[in-house]
Amino acid sequence: MSHTILYARVSTAEQTLEHQEAQARAAGFQIDEVISDQGASGVSTRLAERPGGERLNDRLRKGDILVVRWVDRLGRNYQDVTDTIREFMRRGVVIRTVINNMTFDGSTTDPIQEAVRDALIAFMAATAQAQAEATKEAQKAGIEAAKTNGKKYRGKKPSYSRTQFETVRSMLGQEAGATKVSNETGLTRQTVLRIKNDPAAAEEALERWGL
Question: Higher confidence at residue 141 or residue 79?
Fold first, then answer.
């Protein structure tokens, strides 16, 4: 029996786990399980090195369907993405994307169809890497501009207040679950998990912004 798994890599406030899952379901996917990585950088960490990526490798079986928002979720660069997709196809896993509803599988034996499929995978992976590198360069430019103007680069403004931060820390210290904390504070579950996973960095962000 096939199993449909959504893999979500969440690296920004706009790309919440809930948002990516809602997008997939709205596109018509019947999701059986969601596996995610929180805050993993797409340009620095291979899929196999992420906790969620390791779990994904263990869970996927022949006939399963892997759903991702876009192919960039599956690796840090062109080589990583293409290697990952081809390895999953060799294992009999079907990869589908939410954006543009693309489907990749290894069932075809027609050489022309194989060539078109592989060329499309390569093109999409290269495009994903180019976009990631462009974003990284834009961030570097912003940092350098801030330095030139005599300003300290503060990064993205936290989506939580000092009061919310303290409430999250307090509730987590009392063994409250992320969903309960989210409902109590009005923060997204992803934000709660980010604070939980690295409270020092979360507090440092508040201090940089004087909050």
Answer: 79
